[in-house]
Amino acid sequence: MNQRVIVPLPKAFRLLNHGPTVLVSSAHAGRRNVMAAAWSMPLDFDPPKVAVVIDKSTLTRELVEASGEFVLSVPSRQQAALTLAVGTQSGREIDKFSIVGAGGTAASLVGAPLIDGCLAWLECRVIAEPHIQQNYDLFLAEVVAAWADPAVFSNGRWHFPDEQRRSIHYQAGGSFFATGDTFEV
Amino acid sequence: MNQRVIVPLPKAFRLLNHGPTVLVSSAHAGRRNVMAAAWSMPLDFDPPKVAVVIDKSTLTRELVEASGEFVLSVPSRQQAALTLAVGTQSGREIDKFSIVGAGGTAASLVGAPLIDGCLAWLECRVIAEPHIQQNYDLFLAEVVAAWADPAVFSNGRWHFPDEQRRSIHYQAGGSFFATGDTFEV
Q1: CB proximity A99 to B under 8 Å
Q2: Quick one: pLDDT at residue B98?
Q3: Fewer CB within a 10 Å sphere, N or C end of chain A?
Q4: Where are the alpha helices (DSSP H) in chain B?
Q5: Is B139 an interface residue toward A (CB < 8 Å)?
Q6: Is ipTM strictly over 0.90?
Q7: What's A100's DSSP letter?
């Protein structure tokens, strides 16, 4: 696993503020899974909360509902093919940890693992809202711990060092955008 | 206003799929406003739905709750300073349409205006979910019409022609990322 330092919770929203594609990992009763999600966003600053869409058909949904926990990992451009693969195959058919290359690293407060090689990680506990989970596949969660690779995120800011270690934004059909230039106004 | 063509509703989610900062415009009973939002995302494909966070303190919140409608406009890098300005000033104190340069263009199905010069526009009707509106400042809405500048989005895909006509992703303190390179895996 790459280097990892803790991110203070009031700054954790900045890990998702720019809308990157994420990996959602989950675990329950000896089963585990990882999928990609294009639809996630911060929901509050402090305590930090997030929102993420998790389809009813997925194994991730089953594990998240059973455990009440998940991890969001922010993959890099180097991991784009892996992200697409875990986003298009089902954990009911294969062990998708064979795609991400390892079982991941243990999280500090939740059972789901941190995906190795990613840029940042948010450990999340579901805030039970059964009506919106059922009707919109929408999960709200509190971020209970957050981590980042200090080569790409420190002092509350992303600073991508090269073209490959950047977050990615899914478009469609295997096409992504890399996060581009930083600019100030 | 720049050129504008309709986007088929089953492709409307792609206008937000990559997590751009948006402008939220609203109107009710002769009052109107526009604010920036970093926290929005698609929620469903067809009919398309979106989720957006709108703080209780804002005039936008009052107008969206009263009218049940809003428009999400996707600003370009050229509009980053304007986006920051409408995101940091209150419509209770100034007419923020003086910042965006004009009153906007009439939408087709909702009362809120499309913001001129943006890259794409989503006309939205709120799906009433008072509990999550009150508890999380979270609004769900159905996209009832969508539009894009064909110079940047056509056939369901973004294709940014130059550095200025790109969507933007807010980080913090006046710092943004531009949407970067497209790549395929």
Answers
A1: no
A2: 87
A3: N
A4: 59-67, 80-88, 97-100, 130-136
A5: no
A6: yes
A7: H
